[in-house]
């Protein structure tokens, strides 16, 4: 490294290393080389290093001589003597005495640790990964005195510059092209930090992209590691000072990089969770209708019907297998109706013993039967001004069906043991998982009541026929219960998603909810697996006779294509390369199945 021997007018002598690109000499203490010489101008000259040579230039026409001759500017060679006023400077291409480190490291370790603690504290409040990384780089520039810093992450083998900062705490534009570089490659390959003292003159690195593009003199690069793997690097440089970094500076950087690795990994995990959360929220929001989640064609048809009937007082009959959301639909109708501020009263007709059902529905007067110690109103009166939800209406005994029909026709009910009818103003939504038409045929359900309740029918498809909705609803429950139980679970494994799509879900959404809830409580990993959901291969794919398996597949496949085509039968037939009558026939069969009927086999099927 080049040096200047500085001799003052009093004969004192000292050696100064030329570590900067431009070194100023003068009387003013602000200069890089201040000299106590009253005759010397405030700044007398500059020595400029152009990457190859050192050039002296007189400042403001000051009287400068080199080797006894007056010069305005001069390319310096070994032993050249510069004189201004009473000061003499001798240029040496190499240091005469070993120089102390360019920057004293003592005390910096403490400063670095303090900065690290401050940074860690900031992490606790950090909400955004990009800002956090910028803060990390700013802290590192402060500690190491680098004037440029880059945090580069390796994602899927690709380098991406996640933070690029200069001392002014500004983002360096176009950083990717500037640093994609052999120095980084070396650090990634060796997994070891690297210091380059005088990069412009180091034959190994002087051609590297970053050194050329950023005109770097000093470079220090350390890996960010997790479980022995490099996932990024911290790259620091200075374009002004050579030999800024040495082994001791590396020692300073090492704990910082180790801690930063943890912090960055954590922050990245948090960031990905936040992003996943947000996209799930968006997905749920775009697939949500009140408390109902799902946006497949069949559910969109359900929403359309709810929209149509909600504002009226029309009776609605909701049908669907157990756990498909019939009560949620009833509540949604109520919530969107003009009765929303009134009560919503649910009665499970199948769960109440027959002897108690009448009094439960219509109330009783004191002494009406043994145990009737006080007069009580029934569910009909409780629902006055609101909506009465009659769940499992198919389980209602015939005798009571007559009374319900009368109450709905007369808009009045009479308590058990009383003979004074009371007016009630309510809307009825009934639900059933039975096929009521069959019950009528069997004589267990009254046709007149059926028509009274079934002014508009809403059918809820089973979960297995709702396509991708099963995943969206599953993720919604996962998120909900992870939050409720403070669990660290953040998603499903790909295997779990496949299993969820394959499984038949006999208990529908209630079963999905229960399985996910249990998995969230018990899971000890971030991702819930098919095993956590108790979806073992044997319950996913029961072995069927080939003909039945073919039929099942065909049914599912046509449903899927129909779903993709938003229910358009002609397009579905065209896509499947079949006659439209095949699709119509398929839908007829589904409808018959829903009613529990069996259609005669087609010619095609008979042949098969
Ligand atoms: N589309 C949906 N999105 C989110 N949650 C749903 C959806 N459908 C149903 N659920 C939830 O599934 C569970 C079962 O729903 P609900 O009780 O309404 O079903 P049901 O058809 O009335 O059942 P049952 O016939 O057994 O009375 C509830 O916890 C409900 O909140």
Automatic annotation (TrEMBL):
Transmembrane segments: none annotated. Signal peptide: none annotated. CDD domains: AAA (cd00009), FHA (cd00060). GO terms for molecular function: ATP binding; sequence-specific DNA binding. It holds the Pfam family GAF_2. InterPro entries: AAA+_ATPase (IPR003593), AAA_lid_NorR (IPR058031), GAF (IPR003018), GAF-like_dom_sf (IPR029016), Homeodomain-like_sf (IPR009057), HTH_Fis (IPR002197), P-loop_NTPase (IPR027417), Sigma_54_int (IPR002078). Keywords: Activator, ATP-binding, DNA-binding, Nucleotide-binding, Transcription, Transcription regulation. Residues 292-521 form the Sigma-54 factor interaction domain. SUPFAM superfamilies: GAF domain-like, Homeodomain-like, P-loop containing nucleoside triphosphate hydrolases, SMAD/FHA domain. GO terms for biological process: regulation of DNA-templated transcription. PANTHER family: PTS-DEPENDENT DIHYDROXYACETONE KINASE OPERON REGULATORY PROTEIN-RELATED, TRANSCRIPTIONAL REGULATORY PROTEIN. This is Transcriptional regulator, NifA subfamily, Fis Family. It comes from Anaeromyxobacter dehalogenans (strain ATCC BAA-258 / DSM 21875 / 2CP-1).
């Amino acid at each position: 490294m080049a040096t200047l021997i500085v001799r003052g007018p009093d004969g004192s002598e000292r050696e100064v290393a030329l570590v900067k690109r431009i070194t100023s000499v003068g009387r003013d203490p602000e200069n890089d080389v201040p000299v106590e010489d009253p005759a010397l101008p405030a700044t007398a000259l500059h020595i400029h290093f152009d990457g190859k040579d050192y050039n002296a230039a007189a400042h403001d026409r000051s009287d400068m001589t080199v080797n006894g001759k007056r010069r305005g500017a001069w390319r310096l060679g070994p032993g050249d003597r510069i004189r201004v006023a009473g000061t003499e400077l001798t240029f040496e291409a190499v240091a005469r005495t070993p120089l102390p480190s360019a920057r004293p490291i003592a005390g910096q370790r403490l400063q670095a640790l303090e900065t690290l603690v401050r940074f860690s504290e900031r992490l606790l409040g950090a909400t955004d990964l990009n800002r956090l990384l910028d803060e990390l780089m700013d802290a590192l520039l402060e500690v190491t005195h680098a004037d440029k810093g880059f945090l580069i992450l390796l994602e899927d083998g690709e380098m991406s510059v996640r933070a690029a900062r200069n001392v002014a705490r500004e983002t360096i534009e176009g950083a990717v092209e500037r640093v994609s570089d052999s120095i980084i490659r070396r650090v990634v390959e060796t997994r070891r930090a690297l210091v380059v003292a005088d990069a412009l003159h180091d034959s190994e690195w002087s051609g590297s992209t970053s050194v050329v593009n950023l005109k770097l003199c000093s470079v220090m690069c350390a890996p960010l590691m997790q479980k022995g793997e490099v996932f990024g690097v911290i790259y620091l440089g200075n374009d002004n000072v050579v030999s800024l970094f040495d082994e001791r500076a590396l020692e300073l950087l090492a704990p910082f990089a180790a801690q930063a690795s943890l912090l960055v990994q954590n922050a990245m995990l948090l960031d990905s969770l936040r992003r996943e959360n947000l996209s799930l929220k968006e997905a749920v929001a775009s697939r949500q209708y009140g408390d109902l989640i799902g946006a497949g064609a069949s559910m969109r048809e359900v929403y359309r019907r709810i929209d149509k009937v909600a504002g009226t007082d029309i009776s609605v009959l909701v049908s669907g297998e157990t756990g498909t959301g019939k009560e949620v639909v009833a509540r949604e109708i109520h919530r969107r109706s003009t009765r929303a501020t009134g009560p919503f009263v649910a009665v499970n007709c199948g769960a109440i013993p027959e002897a108690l059902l009448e009094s439960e529905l219509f109330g009783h007067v004191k002494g009406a039967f043994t145990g009737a110690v006080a007069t009580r109103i029934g569910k009909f009166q409780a629902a006055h001004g609101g909506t009465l939800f009659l769940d499992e209406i198919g389980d209602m005994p015939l005798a009571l069906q007559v009374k319900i029909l009368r109450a709905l026709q007369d808009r009045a009910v009479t308590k058990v043991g009383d003979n004074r009818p009371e007016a009630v103003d309510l809307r009825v939504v009934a639900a059933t998982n039975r096929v009521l038409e069959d019950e009528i045929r069997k004589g267990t359900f009254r046709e007149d009541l059926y028509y009274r309740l079934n002014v508009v029918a809403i059918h809820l498809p089973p979960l297995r026929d709702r396509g991708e909705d099963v995943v969206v609803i599953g993720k919604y429950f996962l998120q909900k219960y992870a939050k409720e139980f403070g669990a660290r679970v953040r998603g499903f494994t790909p295997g779990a998603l496949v299993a969820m799509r394959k499984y038949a879900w006999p208990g529908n959404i209630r079963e999905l909810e229960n399985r996910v809830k249990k998995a969230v409580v018990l899971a000890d990993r971030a991702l819930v697996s098919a095993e956590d959901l108790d979806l073992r291969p044997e319950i996913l794919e029961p072995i069927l006779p080939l003909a039945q398996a073919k039929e099942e597949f065909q049914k599912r496949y046509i449903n899927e294509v129909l779903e993709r085509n938003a229910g358009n039968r002609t397009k579905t037939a065209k896509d499947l390369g079949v006659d439209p009558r095949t699709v119509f026939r398929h839908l007829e069969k589904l409808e018959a199945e829903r009613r529990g009927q069996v259609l005669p086999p087609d010619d095609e099927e008979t042949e098969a």
